[in-house]
Structures are given as C-alpha cells and as structure tokens.
UniProtKB/TrEMBL annotation:
Protein name: Uncharacterized protein
Region: Disordered, residue numbers: 71-96
C-alpha cells in the first residue's frame, strides 16, 4: 500500500500516513505548512478536536500502522482457543 510521510506537530517524529484521506477512519489532519526542506506537518487529533474536524468535513488521514497488514499474522488464533505449551522430551542416552 502506498504511504506518505508527515512530521507530527506534537512530538516532532515522522509518522507514516495512508496516501489518501479517509473520512470514516481518519484521525490525522495534514497542515499546509512546509518548511524550507519541504517537510509536511500533521496533527494527530483526539477527543473534541477530532469531533470538530469530522463535523467540519476536513480531510483526515489514517495512520498507516492501523491499516498495514505487513506484520499481522495471516490467520490469527481465535481468543477462545488455548494452545498447550510443547512438552519437554527427556533424552535417554544408551551406551552400547
């Protein structure tokens, strides 16, 4: 999946975002502010800020970590299934 990068205004860390805004799942607002290096800044919205941005129909982006399938197991174990740990096998040495 294609991603874009932005710098968080809160922490200053680079965050990966999905390439296109998603009005249903998005929680990150990109700012049009760019510095001399071309860095794009973004705000991660929570609480009332997020509700106001949704009400104003602002384009909100999704953090790529929420939609990425690269590191998720292809078939996760259901919560109601318990796997027994493997038993240790004692080795018996035989001399001939």
């Amino acid at each position: 999946m294609e991603i874009t990068w932005a710098t968080s205004t809160g922490s200053g860390k680079r965050i990966p975002l999905d390439l296109y805004p998603d009005p249903g799942l998005g929680s990150v607002r990109k700012r049009d502010i760019r510095d001399q290096d071309g860095v794009i800044y973004a705000d991660i919205l929570r609480g009332d800020e997020l509700h106001h941005a949704i009400a104003d129909q602002q384009p909100l982006y999704v953090l790529h970590s929420e939609t990425c399938h690269a590191r998720r197991p292809p078939n996760p174990k259901p919560a109601h299934i318990r796997l027994d740990p493997p038993r240790k096998v004692k080795r018996q040495w035989r001399y001939r």
